[in-house]
Amino acid sequence: MKILALISFLIGLTAATGDDLHYVDPLIGSTAGGNVFVGASLPYGLAKPVADVDGQNTGGFSTDGSNVTGFSHMHDSGTGGNPSQGQFPLFPQLCRDNIVDNCRFGKTDRATHYIQDSVVARPGYFAVRLENGIHAEMTASQRTALYRFKFPETHASNGDTLDPVILLDLTDLWSSRQNASISLDADSARIVGNGTFLPSFGAGSYRTFFCADFTGAEVRDNGIWVNNRAGSEPKALYVTRGFNNFYLQAGGYVTFERPDDGVVTVRVGVSYVSSQQACTNAEAEVPAPGKDFARLEQEAVDSWSEKLSPIKITAGGMSDAMISAFWSGIYRTMLSPQNMTGENPVWKSDEPYFDSFYCIWDQFRAQLPLLSLIDPETQTNLIRSLLDTYKNEGWLPDCRMSLCKGWTQGGSNADVVLTDAFVKNLTNIDWELAYKAMVNDAENEPLEWSYEGRGGLQSWKRLNYIPYLDFDYLGFGTNSRSISRTVEYAYNDYGLAVVGKGLGKSENTKYLSRANNWRNLFKADQKSVLENGTDTGFTGFFQPKYLNRTWGFQDPIACSALASWCSLTSNPSETFESSIWEYLFYVPHDMAALIKLLGGPDSFVKRLDYFHTSGLADIGNEPVFLTVYQYHYAGRPALSTARAHNYIPRSFNASTNGIPGNDDSGAMGSFLVWSMMGLFPNAGQNVYLISAPFFEAVEVTHPITNCTATIRNSNFDPTYRKVYIQSALLNGRPYTKNWIGHEFFTQGMTLELMLGEHESDWGTRVEDLPPSLSDNQARDEATVGMHGVGMMGS
Ligand SMILES: *[C@@H]1O[C@H](CO)[C@@H](O)[C@H](O)[C@H]1NC(C)=O
Ligand SMILES: *[C@@H]1O[C@H](CO)[C@@H](O)[C@H](O)[C@H]1NC(C)=O
Ligand SMILES: *[C@@H]1O[C@H](CO)[C@@H](O)[C@H](O)[C@H]1NC(C)=O
Ligand SMILES: *[C@@H]1O[C@H](CO)[C@@H](O)[C@H](O)[C@H]1NC(C)=O
Ligand SMILES: *[C@@H]1O[C@H](CO)[C@@H](O)[C@H](O)[C@H]1NC(C)=O
Ligand SMILES: *[C@@H]1O[C@H](CO)[C@@H](O)[C@H](O)[C@H]1NC(C)=O
Ligand SMILES: *[C@@H]1O[C@H](CO)[C@@H](O)[C@H](O)[C@H]1NC(C)=O
Ligand SMILES: *[C@@H]1O[C@H](CO)[C@@H](O)[C@H](O)[C@H]1NC(C)=O
Ligand SMILES: *[C@@H]1O[C@H](CO)[C@@H](O)[C@H](O)[C@H]1NC(C)=O
């Protein structure tokens, strides 16, 4: 009877919201440091056109009301620090009296305000009107940006109509150009060129190429400009850095006869291989630039719809704003990494090549697990690309952008990405190669561990921790972060043990033992005192430890909002971008042991509460993610739910400032998405922590098995008074564990949650808790996996 009732209930609810793409708002996170890319892109697209501004321009554009300095074709999304890419911007303008020397050339001279409410951003399309009356629209295919610039009809002092002028600047957002070339064709007005630029968070330099074609207007003239002067001869230019690294502003220009409709269309093909390939890309993808705009936009819309199609939600009265925040979060996880297959000049290979892993330290926790679920085929290709990078460059990346090695932030966290895919059974991956790459991280110290592998491995093996002020002559990296590296290396080695065990490797026990190394930096009598002298009342924290096994000291609150921000570049410390308080919770594989060490569940919960309510938790950066849900491990899943509702929508919402920190390639977006879906991954383990979804129901159709998993709040309350799970049914049978494995999705199970206003005893018993390494009983259950669940139901 009960099951029948459930089934009819199900049928009533399966109607989803329909086309969900219109909920995607690319402008979420476009100011206040979200740094998201708001322009046009395909999923994983390489071409990413948008307006570039002189304000918060890390991702190109910002709704901060600053000035537009150009329109460029390649970007990264959500990154921090220096702006990324933005090469070869175009700048449309009308120049006084049709005299080209009257044009505004350099970035500062030409910067022009945009009209705030003219900004239109949707998947595959971006538009903005400048204060000079020029309206710009853009869309993109995989490697080609397509622009339509509409010039107003304006007259010179002698009554002539002003000619549209489009400038191309041999620069990038960061003005990192080392050298660049441009050449213009006098007849067709095609412009090709290339330049060498610096990666925004990595070593070395990279070269990119472009091929620009103009249609819709008669060309009057073209040429080059240098500083504030231009000339129609010569038609080529090479610029480099000279005395004192001097930076010359230079580029090309084209002037047109204004067409009746005022529109000049510009097609810009991009490539990392050659200008010729940039032209070939453009010609193949956009054969008829004057007519292709609508087709490109439609193709982008179709691609995005397909990528979002595995998920359906039943909102149940949840606000449109939060629906928008949800879909936009998913959307942003597929802006980067970028598919650069066929565009890698560094090595030749038939394997896929993806770039803009910016950075894996951010992405491994929630973003890449989300892709494993809703786009497993791409996740497989991302991993194959990481493994091919290992094969050809010798190391798995921890961060990679623009063909360059990016700076490593902590551990070798590609190991976690591999482990996560392994426990979720992703196929078409060479696991022997993956294991080799992971062992390489764990055993061999590279000369430059600032951008690959791990440092301090001699100490890691001899002392079982990374020492404070290590004596490390094997390799070079910033000799800091001994605490955060210790806890991350321990988790990385745990992954190695898991994959090794799965592959039947004998070193498995060695890595399991190293997975305990985090314990070696736990100083049981360490106290934490606030800056005004108040004792937080908690004892036992990680502390730095010297080579001679005596303790050093770092204030547990240092590198939190209650003290000062720590960054690798300005003030490296023993924890990376976060405090000892926050890293204390980073024992994802052995929360049971950590909880015991911190005095048991009650005392752990007090500590986690204090962390989240005192200002110590940095909700704007990725290490905090799992801490929101770690109450599950103390048998208090309701407190995780309460905590999630405390942060959402307060810190994650649909406003232009609705991301609490850099989106980091969609990492922040993925935190929101998993939280709202009511499951949170413990990346690297076959574990999702169960909480109530923020909407009535969510369905996920697994793209490979085609099975549909459903999570439903059976008495959903959109005002969120009733958010606590009272009881649960899995496939119609009582389910008391507060976590579930990936089989939930691959096999398409149904989880029905009964909610109430107060915490219940659901999911609170020891046998309900997620697995921990030191907890034998739980570990056995984890190995048995869903088999155990089936038995429970039968
Ligand atoms: C934008 O340009 C105006 C002048 O048009 C200038 O006053 C302002 O400082 C610029 N804004 C930024 C952020 O550079
Ligand atoms: C351009 O700059 C890069 C990086 O400094 C350098 O390796 C390359 O040789 C330069 N190319 C030319 C043609 O000067
Ligand atoms: C860069 O462009 C210039 C001018 O078109 C050309 O002479 C040069 O060979 C190009 N460099 C590369 C590496 O293609
Ligand atoms: C990546 O690009 C290649 C080459 O264009 C294409 O064959 C492949 O399907 C793309 N993969 C994804 C996941 O978009
Ligand atoms: C992975 O495959 C194994 C062996 O077939 C199976 O027992 C396990 O349930 C699968 N795990 C997932 C997450 O599908
Ligand atoms: C010290 O700072 C904390 C956190 O800001 C505050 O809650 C507490 O009241 C302060 N104590 C004193 C004695 O000022
Ligand atoms: C251990 O090393 C630290 C740092 O060099 C030093 O300050 C401390 O005195 C040493 N302790 C012992 C017991 O040698
Ligand atoms: C949205 O999130 C941002 C960033 O965390 C926050 O500053 C803002 O107050 C939030 N807005 C609302 C309406 O909650
Ligand atoms: C899933 O559906 C796709 C498209 O309909 C089909 O090609 C594929 O074979 C199906 N997979 C399974 C495992 O049924």
UniProtKB/TrEMBL annotation:
Tell me a GO biological process for this protein.
glycoprotein catabolic process
Q: What is its EC number?
A: 3.2.1.-
* Entry's transmembrane regions: none
Keywords from the named record: Glycosidase, Hydrolase, Signal
Tell me the enzyme class.
hydrolase
Q: Where is the signal peptide?
A: 1-16
Task: Identify the GO cellular component terms for this protein.
Answer: cytosol; nucleus
Please state every residue range assigned to the domain named Glycosyl hydrolase family 92 N-terminal.
23-271
Molecular-function annotations in GO: carbohydrate binding; hydrolase activity, acting on glycosyl bonds; peptide-N4-(N-acetyl-beta-glucosaminyl)asparagine amidase activity
For the Glycosyl hydrolase family domain, which residue ranges apply? 277-756
A Pfam family this protein belongs to? Glyco_hydro_92
- PANTHER family with a match to the protein in the record: PEPTIDE N-GLYCANASE PNGASE -RELATED, PUTATIVE-RELATED
Please give the name of this protein: Alpha-1,2-mannosidase
Organism of provenance: Penicillium ucsense
